[in-house]
Amino acid sequence: MDKVRIDKWLWSVRIFKSRSMATDACKSSRVKINGEGIKASSAVVRGDLVDVKKNGFNLQYKVVELIDKRVSATLAEPCYENLTPQEELNKYKDWFVGKAKPEIRERGAGRPTKRERREIDRFKNRR
Asked: Residue 33: which domain range?
């Protein structure tokens, strides 16, 4: 196999959750091969640089191996080299740090009553 469709490759190496999401990203110019805008049917070959804009992050990958079937993450990892700059990776960490964990309620306690809900709201507004 000498070349693979870019949308298929992005889906296969698990950069996108579904092939239709990869196709939509290509159509909306959020994916570039070697700095050029492409269509979803464009072919990718070994050694190409793929730029992906996803969820506000600019990711960059180098194609190492071509696959067209979706495989597990451990098998997909050697198929590309992550060239994303460190400051772009830190942007995710900076965004994620400080986010609170979801609230946990005791098992079997059920939904809060109206009175408990008001107390929770008052407590949260004080902070």
From this structure: 4-89
How many domains, in total, are found in the chain? 1
The CATH number assigned to the domain holding 73 equals 3.10.290.10
- Quote the CA–CA distance of 77 and 62 in Å, as a whole number: 11
Max Cα-Cα span within the chain: 66
Say how many C-beta atoms besides its own lie within 10 A of residue 82's C-beta.
10
**pTM exceeds 0.85 for this model:** no
Question: Can you say whether residue 33 is alpha, beta or left, with left for phi > 0 and alpha for psi between -120 and 50 degrees?
Answer: beta
**Mean pLDDT, residues 17-28 taken together:** 95
pLDDT digits (tens, 9 = 90+) for 52-103: 999 888 999 999 999 989 999 999 999 999 999 988 888 877 766 666 677 7
Residue type, 72: S
Residue 44 maps to a domain? yes
Indicate the residue type of 16. F
The tens digit of pLDDT for each residue in 91-118 reads: 877 766 666 677 788 888 888 899 999 9
Cβ(69)–Cβ(12) under 8 Å? yes
